[in-house]
Design brief:
- The protein is of the alpha+beta class and 494 residues long.
- The chain folds into 3 domains: 279 residues, no CATH class; 59 residues; 114 residues, Immunoglobulin-like (Sandwich), CATH 2.60.40.
- The protein contains 18 helices and 9 strands.
- Strands 1-2-4-7-6-5-8-9-3 form a 9-stranded mixed β-sheet, with no helix packed on it.
- Strand 6 and strand 7 form a beta hairpin.
- The longest helix is centred in the middle third of the chain and has 31 residues.
- The protein starts with a helix and ends with a helix.
Length: 494
């Protein structure tokens, strides 16, 4: 195997917070599935549980694999990442019929006091029915796909890690809405007849085909960020764009047309019609009683009359909520990582093509990480057997006055050489990148404009989200129980 291919396969960028969230979701679902299967729940065979697990793994793979690491270098990697989040993970998750298992897998207190009332709220039901209407879902899917592939928003996602994550969230959650009428996870009810899903999927494929054709047959590069830097694997930026369009065309068509064909076959068979009629008679909610020997019930039984079971459930939920909140607060990185680096410049120096990557926008004073991609100027082959050094100097000063800092192979992107320099004061600086390979050596200089860093106004997002969520849940709990108490008093009055 070629060294470049080995380096690519080893370039994983595992997001700690997202991994924690996916593992937590898997544990809740598996706990609910175990309780339901133990109680004789009839609608959760093993293949559905496996489908949900595969869907979570597909989401994790899209966010942690080399597809994410090289999404700012190669359009095809970015496209494969989007296809995984839109065409693979959502239908697998919905085939696992996650609503009831996740609800049963939650702590009793959370399911009874928050999740259950929220799902039974009329506003929630109306919003859910509106979003999962096939017309709404089809329009949302087409709008999100076209908007995010317009050069402006696409470039914004490539050059900003935060916007890139927001783009992924848009693709994933809108795709969940789109695939909902197709899979129709129980206990939801179809709003259109089953045969209508065939034209529904065909129209979605036409939208996908139009967008794919734009990428394949465009006579210019639509996304300049990929053209400014050196391409990988000897593909020009234009060829990379055409390959991404072809991937979108093929994968998207298979994802839309294969289910459309299966649904058409099912609708044309009498067995499918009978099965649909039988499934339509299933109750909306599963009302079987389960004797759950949970931690909360065992603890309440051990404490006896000293405390009520509701108090034990509430205390257990508060402890779990605090533990989850602390986990997110510890795992979310306070600063930018390698995924947030953008192309700062590209030069040809002697036999090398050198590209410099660093933070987006203005460079703050203090320790700053930069990364270098070295390629052969003629063959455009990525060079991994080079020695790279970084030297920072004030504009106008001699290169000999700067102290070189060695750059090592990056922790995530194994094709980049990363190093950290210390910018002492604000002003104009020059960053000299020295590349040495055998008897060949060359140096490229890149301008760096440093400014004093502004104080951080907002803390990391868990410090805002989880306390706010705790306040909302507390207010909801007090309001609901106050309403129930007043209703009981009114009913007992003569």
């Amino acid at each position: 195997m070629q060294p470049v291919v080995q380096a690519v396969l080893r370039s994983w960028s595992i997001p700690a917070a997202a991994t924690f969230a996916l593992v937590l979701t898997a544990l809740i679902y598996m706990r609910g599935a175990w309780l339901l299967r133990r109680a004789g729940y009839p609608n959760l065979p093993g293949w559905r549980i496996a489908s949900f697990a595969l869907g979570l793994f597909a989401v994790w793979f899209a966010l942690a694999s080399p597809l994410d690491t090289f999404s700012t270098f190669v359009i095809t990697a970015h496209m494969l990442q989007h296809m995984t989040l839109m065409m693979v993970a959502p239908p697998l998750l919905l085939l696992g019929e996650p609503l009831i298992p996740i609800l049963r897998g939650m702590p009793r207190f959370a399911a009874r006091e928050f999740a259950g009332p929220f799902l039974n709220w009329k506003v929630t039901a109306r919003i859910g029915l509106f979003l999962t209407k096939p017309v709404t879902a089809l329009v949302l899917m087409g709008a999100v796909m076209f908007i995010w592939h317009v050069p402006g928003p696409y470039e914004l996602a490539v050059r900003s890690g935060a916007w890139h994550q927001f783009e992924h969230a848009c693709f994933f959650f809108v795709s969940i809405i789109f695939w909902w009428p197709v899979v129709q996870p129980w206990p939801s009810r179809p709003q259109w007849p089953r045969w209508a899903m065939v034209p529904y999927l065909v129209i979605a494929d036409l939208q996908n085909t139009v967008l794919s054709a734009v990428l394949v047959f465009s006579d210019r590069l639509l996304y300049p960020s990929y053209g400014a830097g050196p391409g990988l694997f000897r593909l020009s930026a234009q060829e990379d764009q055409a390959a991404a369009g072809a991937i979108m065309w093929v994968v998207g068509s298979l994802a839309f047309l294969v289910p459309a064909t299966l649904i058409a076959v099912q609708c044309l068979t009498r067995r499918s019609a009978v099965r649909t009629a039988v499934e339509a008679t299933r109750p909306v909610l599963y009302r079987a009683k389960v004797d759950e020997a949970t931690i909360e019930t065992r603890l309440a039984a051990w404490l006896g009359d000293r405390v009520s079971s509701r108090m034990v459930e509430a205390a257990s939920f508060i402890v779990l909520f605090a533990a989850v909140s602390a986990g997110f607060m510890l795992l979310v990185k306070p600063g930018p990582d390698e995924d947030d680096q953008v192309l700062r410049g590209s030069q040809q120096a002697g036999p090398f093509a050198i590209a410099l990557y660093g933070p987006e926008g203005t460079i703050p004073t203090g320790p700053v990480s930069f990364a270098v991609l070295a390629k052969d100027a003629k063959s455009r082959e990525v060079l991994l057997d080079t020695a790279v050094g970084l030297s920072l100097r004030k504009n106008g000063s001699a290169r000999a006055d700067a102290k070189p800092v060695p750059a090592e192979v990056g922790d995530e992107n194994r094709l980049l050489f990363s190093g950290e320099v210390d910018i002492e004061t604000a002003g104009s600086w020059s960053l000299d990148v020295n590349v040495h390979r055998g008897s060949e050596e060359a140096t490229a200089s890149f301008p760096v404009e440093a400014v004093q860093p502004e104080p951080e106004l907002l803390p990391r997002w868990p410090y805002l989200v989880f306390p706010s969520l705790a306040v909302v849940m507390a207010i909801t709990y007090l309001f609901r129980h106050r309403t129930v108490r007043h209703a009981d008093l009114a009913a007992s009055a003569p």
